[in-house]
Design a protein that fits this description.
Chain lengths: 411, 252
Amino acid sequence: MSEILDKILLAQKEPSNQPSLDKALAIGYPGKKTEDWKFFPAELLIKDQNELSEKAKTSGKVEFSEQDDFFHIMIHVGDIPSGIVYQGEGLDISIAESESSEAILNQNQRGEFFPYLNSAFSNSELRIQVEKGSNIPKPLRITWNCSGQDHGYFVFPKTDVNCKESSDLKIIEEYSSNIIPSPIFNTYFRAELGKNARLELNQVQDFENRTDFVGYHHINQERDSSFTSNLISLPNGRIRNNHQISLNGPGAESYLNGLFIPSDGNIIDNHTIVDHVADHCTSDENYKGIIFDKGNGIFNGKIFVREGAQKTMAFQSNKNILFGNNPTIHTKPQLEIWADDVKCTHGATTGRLDPQQLFYLRSRGIDPDEAERMLTRGFANEIIERISIEGFREKVEKKVLEHLKEAYDRN
Amino acid sequence: MIEINELKASVEGKEILRGISLDVKPGEVHAIMGPNGSGKSTLASVLAGREDYDVDGGSVHFLGNDLLDMAPEDRAREGIFLAFQYPVEIPGLSTTNFLKSAVNKVREHRGLPKLDAVKFLKLLKEKIKLVEIDQDLLSRSVNEGFSGGEKKRNEVFQMAMLDPKLAILDETDSGLDIDALKIVANGVNSLRSPERSFIIVTHYQRLLDFIQPDYVHVLYNGRIVKSGTKELALELEERGYDWIKEEQKETA
């Protein structure tokens, strides 16, 4: 794997954070023998890129606009000078110098390679602060776009969100690329939720051109805060998502919803960790996969309930539907409980569409083919309807329908 | 309307229907009664086209056409409706949404114009009164989180929407309290007409206090062993099924 590291170092610009790079190098690039990377071929990400011999040197920029339905932050990936992006409505948005490696170290307790790599090379980050008690009236749409040349093998979007006490924010997070072949996205997104704060994070992974993506979300929740993640993955390439939630204060709630629809040689790998540190917290995790011919889906969900996290309610479910000849799914729920007064469930199911449901629809006059599509749509809808942003939810629904239709027609 | 002739069916090699013959004319209501395991629900399922059953012999003609040759969706379009004994839950799909497709498929087949959203809603509001369901319930996922009574009422509501020629009710009364039973029966009664026939499969005579059948048949061991008028149902209520079983033993 050191060969891969050499290639990365050769092509990326000089690291802005040497201690993080040292950590990354010490951990090493993940390979098949790395337990958490068994099913995701991280080494292929680099091999499939064009050979690069020059150092990356793209400058980026950030634009802010207020639209009817949302605030829009558009970021062209690259070096961006520090400065204020927007202030008002309880929001404070800026580009700031990236945090020190110690901050990442605290988050990245599992010693993962990619958060350190991001920290090493992202010299600046998007910083969003929501003032105490502010209910942000419109969702914040954050678009990271990769265009231009000379990015290196990777680009490193980095976002830091701080939701102060009793604030309320909804985010639409998106990534796109105009470059073929696209550099690999290595993203890092951290959010701190203060007491009683609420954050809804919506992400649709829907790349127009084939794009590989390795993303990390670290969410820390204080007392009575509420976090919802709605993650819709329609991969065109290989996607690895990592969500790590720490419920640090009593009464905090976390809802992780995922819908992933791989087909045609694409891979989607969802790893989640929900860490119940404090008592009286709730987590509810719901990931659903629709896997078509030669698509590959992975779900690995860990729940930790620490000693003292009494009265925890932790639920986890992964349901998958398979279509066609050679779909693959690896699902691994894991539960570690150190407290004795808790309510935890987890489960995974994988199979074809339910024949009883199909017959029910057909007995009402609906064609078998349409009945299948209706049931699949219903299966997907259960996740899509968790998105609370009207207008956006309908767009997502439309995208998912188009994606499903294409996959059906190919099948 | 429907002519069933010596119908034989099995599931996984196990013979369940051993030669059923039944002739239902337009406008008639036939009740099929019988002890558990006699084949009542199998008959209903085979007529609707459930694929878990193998038809081993006999014939069924519906309005002159060979019913057993048709796919379930074609039977529905021709005018057969099955109210399920155990209505299926379908998360993520609302009753309203799927019924709109179903109604328009059936209408298209019958040479009627498709209903637009406004006309569909009008029809829905009209039919919903028959079964006293809350309209909000219909915008929720099909049968998900419905009570037993709500599920059965939803079946009768769908029946009203699809306007079938032959409605088959598979133990629609089972497990209902008296109020829900009355609502279901009233719904069915208001759909009775000289053009529409009913086959009502039931385990209990109670339903027939509210829906007056023209004929009552007793199914036992995969055969119709007794047919009569609604007085037969009363006799069954009084005497149970044991005397039927005894009679069968004697003739065998």
